[in-house]
Amino acid sequence: MTEITAPHPSGLTLPAIVLSADGEDAWGPLTPCDDPFALDPDEIARRVLDAGIVGLGGAAFPSAVKLGGARKAGVHTLIINGGECEPYLSCDDRQMRDDAAQIVDGIVLMLRATGAGTARVGIEDNKPEAIAAMRAAAAVQPAVQVCPVPARYPMGSEKQLIGVLTGIEMPADGRPADIGVVVHNVGTARAVRAAVVEGKPLIARLVTLNGNCMKAPGNIEVRLGTLAEAVIAFAGGLKGEGVGLARRVLGGPMMGQQMPHWRVPVVKGTSGILALDADEVAAQAPDPCIRCGSCVQACPAGLLPLEMSARIRNDALAEAVDIGLKDCIACGCCAFVCPSRIPLVQYFVHAKGELAAQERARLRTDATRKLAEQKRERVERDKREKAEAAARRKAEREAREAAARPAATPAEGVSA
Amino acid sequence: MNPLALTDTPVASPHAHGGGSVGRTMRRVQLALVPATLFGFWLYGWPAFFLWSATIAACLGWEALCLRLAGARAVRATLWDGSAALTGWLLAMTLPPWAPWWIAVVGGFVAIVIGKQVFGGLGQNVFNPAMVARVALLVSFPVPMTTWVQPLSVMHAAAPDLLEGLRIFLGLHPVPDAITSATLLGHAKTELARGVDLFAVMGQGGDLVSWTGLRPGSLGESSTLLLAGGGLFLLLGGLISWQVPVAVLAGLAVPAGIAHAIDPGHYLAPEVHLLSGAAMLGAFFIATDYVSSPNTRAGQLIFGFAIGVLAWIIRSFGGYPEGVGFSVLLMNAMTPIIDRYVKPRILGRDRRGRPLDIPAREAS
Ligand code: SF4
Ligand code: SF4
Question: Which residues form the signal peptide (chain B) (predicted)?
Answer without folding.
Answer: none
